[in-house]
Design brief:
Blueprint: H1 15-24, E1 30-34, H2 42-53, E2 60-65, H3 74-79, E3 84-87, H4 93-131, H5 136-151, E4 154-162, E5 175-181, H6 198-210, E6 214-215, E7 219-226, E8 229-237, H7 243-274, H8 284-294, E9 302-309, H9 312-319, H10 321-340, E10 346-351, E11 356-362, H11 368-373, E12 379-381, E13 384-386, E14 390-396, H12 404-420, E15 426-428, H13 431-452, E16 456-465, E17 471-481, E18 487-488, H14 490-500, H15 503-523, E19 530-534, H16 537-540, H17 545-555, E20 563-568, H18 569-574, H19 576-588, E21 592-598, H20 605-610, E22 615-618, H21 620-623, H22 633-644, E23 648-652, H23 657-665, E24 670-672, H24 682-692
Parallel strand pairs: 1-2, 2-3, 14-15, 17-19, 19-20, 20-21, 21-22, 22-23, 23-24
Antiparallel strand pairs: 4-5, 4-8, 6-7, 7-8, 9-11, 9-14, 10-11, 12-13, 16-17, 16-24, 17-18
Helix pairs in contact: 1-2, 4-5, 4-7, 5-7, 8-12, 9-10, 13-14, 15-17, 17-19
Length: about 700
Amino acid sequence: MVLGRHLEYLHAYSGADACKIIEQNRDIVVVLLDVVMETDDAGLKVVKYIREDLDRQDVRIVLRTGQPGYAPEESVIKDYDINDYKTKTELTRRKLVTTVFAAIRSYQQIETVNQSRTGLERIISSAAELLEQQTIHGFAKGVLEQLNHLLGDTVNSVFCARGQGILDDIDDLSFYILGQTGLSSILINQKVSTLKNELTSQMVNTCYSRKKNDFSSENITLYLANGSYRAVIFIELTAELSSITQKLVEVFLTNVSVGYENVHLFHKLRDAAYKDVLTDLPNRLAFLQSLEQFSNYHDQDIVAALIDINHFSDINDGLGQDIGNQLLVAVAQRINQLCTDKTNSCFTVARIGADVFGVIGESDIVNPKNLIALFDFPFKAGEQSLPLNACFGLCAKEQARGEGKKVLNQINIALNLAKKDRQNHAVFYEQEMEDKTLWRLGMIRQLRTDFADNRLELWYQPQLSLTTGKVNGAEALLRWRTAEGKFISPAVFIPLAEYSGLIIEIGDWVIEQACKQIKLLEQQNFNEITISVNVSIPQFRQGNFVESIIEKVHQYQVEPSKFELEITENILMDDPQMVIDALVRLKAEGLRIALDDFGTGYSSLSYLQQLPLDRLKVDRAFVTHIAEEGQSIIANTIINLGKQMNLNVIAEGIEEMAQQEHLKAQGCHDVQGFFYAKPMPADEFVQYLKDNN
């Protein structure tokens, strides 16, 4: 027995045998070696093999020789870390035992130093890794894994902390499992009592109360703390720890405790960055992260959706923001309830805007029927019970393309279409929608560029008196000729101009061009020609709309009665009083007012009486079949109505003689259409006047 351990001696009878035995037995700690064996330097070759080939720097080597003349040089002893050198005559039994004891002690000291160095290297490395952890559960798991490496072998382990302030939706002081090894992952976020192990619960509580580590032969309980953040680690052992390992564990805890505080602080920062304060739901940034993974889900049957509450700002304005906030919380809770009714059916519920929520989940839950049903019943907000409705944009996984922002944009496209659809309040995204959106944006960009490059033109379609047959006016019509010489239909680009807001600039330009054209006609002695200009609702909404028209008329010294504004029924119905007020002011300045497309919209006759009209225009839809039996009732009615209201009546879309004759018989005043002339550029219009008047 040496130092409480049994010794075992292995014998070799040559240098080659010695090398083989040492290579095969990694637990050899002392080698007693003859310098001379099968050769004079066989022993030294064994030393070299141990140190260089096997890289065993820890083995203690004692050289012996029976012939002093064969003693190794000092440099050899120094170079090969030979522990001792003895002649055979010196090795009495007592000296041999002393030499072996000294060599074993030397080995133990070296092993202790190496063990400490390795342990410290692991601690430094693991502490650096753990400082990179950004989640509490990831940190807990990492700590247990690093302790397992440090201890060598453990059975089970748990990382515990009080739930309050650490786990979402947990508000009690029970100990919860944040990480585990050797047990089951389903224990995460469960109480320690779930283990049904009285010893573990008792040890965790005791350690937490005493704030002190506890080491025994069967288990250890470790106290981890930094600042106000505290945790307890319980580990079952297979063997008692050495004093060195215990010290290394304590050093490890000191190093990683800073990381434990950091991960909590990061968790708070993450909550601030990724949580909505009002509803406690994930916010827009968190929803975008979920959408990043959305198109990569293996399950094909997944849907992402946006829920936009209609007219929510009216509630805030009428009932106050407090009621509005309570209402948003109620909506959030009802959406959450939909997703928790079935386990794992929803992956994410988030608030991504003031009154917009996002949902990702399986299609059996996230579908139009279920989402619309959320708003079947009123929502409680304080003492209020308020009905709400919403619009829904949805995107199925197979349609999702690109990263999170791209997918969110796709769902927004569907949502915007749902808002515009009076019948269907839930729309699924399809690729064609985005293609159309990109086309629209491209066309708007091209329109803006071409307008700046003066590629828009004002053409004129003559208007004739049915009584005299002479031209008495013209409708100014906008034309867009691209750089390639291709014409884009007004039916295409006018809605784009209105959508983009460019119609206001274009409208101002049209009014100016019309004024210039009137002056040009006057200079060529066409003094009775009226120019008619169409205006849109965005122009009416301009604060200075009326003033800008009057200013242009005065600037170009145009006789106001030669300038006519045409409005449609749709414009009138958008904001009747605003339009009527503006037209009354313009009429007072002497400008003429015409109502276009009469009978095709939804205006009431009461508005017709309020409008300061000069002319009523019969739409081509009522003129096309006017000469056919039974097809002229509406046109005849409009003509008679106009005459009774002392309005000039003009019919458009005349393409054949029979239509003209019917209109003349009904007493219609003026006409325009391809039967007389198509729209034409300004110079051709002047020539047309010269040829026909």
